Amino acid sequence: MRLFTAIALPDFARSELASIQPDHPDIRLTPESQIHMTIRYIGETDKVRTRRIAQALSRVSFEPFDIELMGTGCFPNPREPAILWAGVRYHPVLKELYDGMQEELYRAGVPPENRAYHPHVTLGRIRPGKKGRSGPESPPLETVLDSFFNGESSKFHVTFRIDRFRLYQSRLHSGGAIHHCLQEYHAS
Fold this sequence. Notes:
Blueprint: E1 2-8, H1 11-20, E2 27-29, E3 36-44, H2 47-57, E4 65-75, E5 83-88, H3 92-107, E6 120-126, H4 141-150, E7 157-162, E8 164-173, E9 176-186
Antiparallel strand pairs: 1-3, 1-8, 2-6, 4-5, 4-7, 5-6, 8-9
């Protein structure tokens, strides 16, 4: 099983995020129903280890808090965009939640991540081998991306309360990944 932890976004936030997704055939958009904020990617694991991970995550505690999603960007950088995202304003409780997960997952045998945590919401991915190409009916990809990074989308802002997180299983399909909630964990 391919696992990760995430915050499920409220319907209104997913709807607003879907409204700023750039429309271009070279961008594979995250379906509105699948938009979430990943906290920790865990990776492939078997059923026994999944049970251990689920139990370990039940020991993660945090207080409810308000989070702000704001602005747009990409990884790795605007000259070579691969993943398009909406940003997450830094909040110390979100960092504590991530750190608590890291600790409990490590105790369950999951190695820690070797990179800094950069919270974001993935809105789409540039299709491999398609960067810079466009069809006869679509504007150049660069124009669409410039609007996403610098136009109205870049002023995106929404706030909501976080009082739970989830453990998800991700199944890869030809149209992208489908996420299934295995367990939900509530704030202390």
